[in-house]
Amino acid sequence: TGDNVSPRRVLLKLSGEVFGGGRVGLDPKVVAGVAGQIGEAVESGVQVAVVVGGGNFFRGAELSQHGLDRARADYMGMLGTVMNALALQDFLEQSGVSTRVQTAITMQQVAEPYIPLRAIRHMERGRVVVFGAGSGMPFFSTDTVSAQRALETHCDELLVAKNGVDGVYTADPAVDPHAQLLSTLTYADALQRGLKVMDATAFALCQENDLGTRVFGMTEPGNVTRALRGETIGTLVTN
Ligand code: UDP
């Protein structure tokens, strides 16, 4: 068509909480719903990568409080994210969206290894890439991995889907009835006002590399598709 505007490419972070519907294990209805919404965005030409959390199975920091070695507990946490990645892949494929899982810990029978250039190629061909097993390194979080993968695969934006809140507020809305939703915010302001956007390592990566983050609530039906397509919902955090 002679149109050389490059397509929108985004990285969506889905926490383990999303997969479990707030409980331990998987809530297939919720995962199917999210997969359907991702499929709609892909159909309209958005290139999508997903980083999945694993808090619905194990969190290393919590396990280590029960006496497990922290690093080993973190590996258990990372393996949990792979189960979420496979569940998401399954529902995406069921809704007709071609999907590849890439893991930071190699498990050849189950997924491709993390190869950034190949991930980009997949997205260019309309495939969703789901990144599992975190960074493969203990003491990191999937928030941090989201920022890192978004940067390495040249995503335009990081999208953080939340359960319960629909963005960043001036104060904790559960505590302060006067808390207001912010539609835009700078990283510097967030730091100065002590507003929590994501964990500190992820935050620093985004700020230092000028990657914008949109935090949005996924309770409202269709919000995942809206965020993927670039609609202005939730809070956009930039430099
Ligand atoms: N994890 C890790 N390194 C990583 C990513 C994750 O060790 O690079 C482990 C860590 O134990 C973490 C667990 O995997 O608690 C699940 O990830 P996370 O807590 O980020 O998931 P979410 O809170 O998004 O569900």
TrEMBL record:
One of its GO terms (molecular function) is ATP binding. UMP binds at G54, D74, S135, G136, M137, P138, F139, F140, S141, T142. Its EC number is 2.7.4.22. Inhibited by UTP. It is found in: Cytoplasm. Pfam families: AA_kinase. Keywords: ATP-binding, Cytoplasm, Kinase, Nucleotide-binding, Pyrimidine biosynthesis, Transferase. Transmembrane segments: none annotated. It catalyses: UMP + ATP = UDP + ADP. Residues 9-216 form the Aspartate/glutamate/uridylate kinase domain. It is an enzyme of class 2 (transferase). ATP binds at K13, L14, S15, G16, G55, R59, N163, Y169, D172. Its main location: cytoplasm. The keyword Hydrolase does not apply. Coiled coil: none annotated. One of its GO terms (cellular component) is cytoplasm. Pathway: Pyrimidine metabolism; CTP biosynthesis via de novo pathway; UDP from UMP (UMPK route): step 1/1. GO terms for biological process: 'de novo' CTP biosynthetic process; UDP biosynthetic process. Catalyzes the reversible phosphorylation of UMP to UDP. Belongs to the UMP kinase family. Homohexamer. This is Uridylate kinase. It comes from Scrofimicrobium canadense.
